[in-house]
Structures are given as structure tokens and as C-alpha cells.
Write a sequence for this structure.
């Protein structure tokens, strides 16, 4: 009988630990924000629907772009929950500079670039990596 009581106590403690870790995992998934990667087709649809959004365009294979996303953009999104930044990866494009210029009607085709889209049109654009403070100003 003692063995059964001890075993039940061990199982209940183990169950409690599992419930706590499961709760923490669910909480993290609810509060963690990532950069949402979209395709060029989805971007075109958002532009045609005259949506308001912020998009980052760049080549993820470039270490500057990937490091910038993980070190600046994702921490910004974690601190500002509810904020969305979309990302279009231009890695597979043959001429990403021309695509950026024609899609966003800009003369600058460098990568990465932030575009603030309001009613389907480019309201603001920022070339290169934008600092954390500039990202904050971007959403004010």
C-alpha cells in the first residue's frame, strides 16, 4: 500500500511539472511575435486590396539581413506585441533590384528595405537596416 501511495505522489508531482511547462509553452506561443514571411503573390494581393502594413524586403541568405531580423526586428516585435512586420525573401529572384523598383515604385533597389504601405501605396521607405529607435518611430 505504501508503494501505491508513493507512486501516486510521484505521478502527481510529475503531472504538475508537465502542466507548468505546458502552460509556459502556451504562454510563449501566445506572446511571441515573429516576422511573418509572405510570398510575392501575397504581397501583390495585399497591395491590390489597399491594405495598411509594413513590409521588409531582403535576401535572407545575406548575413546582414538574417542577423538584422534576428537581432533587431524580432526583439522589437516581442516588445511591441500586436505589431506586424511582413517579410519578403528575394533570395530566389534573378533581379531583385528591378523587382523592388517596379513593385514599390522607387529608384532605390538596395536590400534590405522597409516599406510602410498605406492604402496600397508606399507612404515611407527606409533603405538598409533600420535601428530599433527608428522602428519605434516607424510605428508611432
Amino acid at each position: 500500500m505504501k508503494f501505491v501511495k508513493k507512486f501516486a505522489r510521484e505521478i502527481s508531482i510529475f503531472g504538475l511539472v508537465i502542466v507548468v511547462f505546458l502552460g509556459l509553452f502556451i504562454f510563449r506561443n501566445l506572446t511571441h511575435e515573429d516576422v511573418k514571411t509572405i510570398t510575392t503573390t501575397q504581397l501583390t494581393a495585399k497591395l491590390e486590396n489597399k491594405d495598411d502594413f509594413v513590409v521588409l524586403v531582403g535576401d535572407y541568405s545575406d548575413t546582414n539581413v538574417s542577423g538584422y531580423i534576428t537581432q533587431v526586428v524580432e526583439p522589437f516585435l516581442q516588445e511591441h506585441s500586436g505589431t506586424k512586420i511582413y517579410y519578403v525573401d528575394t533570395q530566389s529572384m534573378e533581379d531583385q533590384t528591378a523587382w523592388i523598383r517596379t513593385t514599390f515604385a522607387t529608384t532605390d533597389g538596395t536590400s534590405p528595405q522597409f516599406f510602410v504601405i498605406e492604402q496600397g501605396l508606399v507612404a515611407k521607405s527606409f533603405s538598409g537596416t533600420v535601428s530599433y529607435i527608428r522602428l519605434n518611430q516607424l510605428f508611432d
